[in-house]
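ok here's HotDog ACOT-type domain-containing protein, seq below lol
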Amino acid sequence: MTEVDDIPTPRGQLALKIAATRAHTNAHGDIPAGWLISQMDQAAELTAGREAHGRTATVAVETMDFLCPVRVGSVISIYTEVGDIGHSSIKIDVEVWDDELHKVTEAYFVMVALDDNGRIRAVQT
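and the structure came out like this:
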């Protein structure tokens, strides 16, 4: 008989860890989704850049779901996992977890590799 682990855990590797401080709040004192998306984009870009061996840019964000709010003082951990790699694109699964191990949000980021002139290039393998 095998045991089933019902405790949710992040998928992928830790790409970024940051505290949500009062400096990040909106006029109502809440951590806005835009700040969180910016952190996720940075984590996706770091991961895609390692895969592409260079500069990348976000071209799409797919299926983003916000599951619970981020509170001031929380430390969020952003995990990334490389998905499909195309000719010039890389799909990155991004998950955000708070310090109480609640999944805050998740999304799929589509990144493209760029050359030094900012033009799309093939992903270098």
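fwiw The chain has one domain: 13-113. kinda neat tbh
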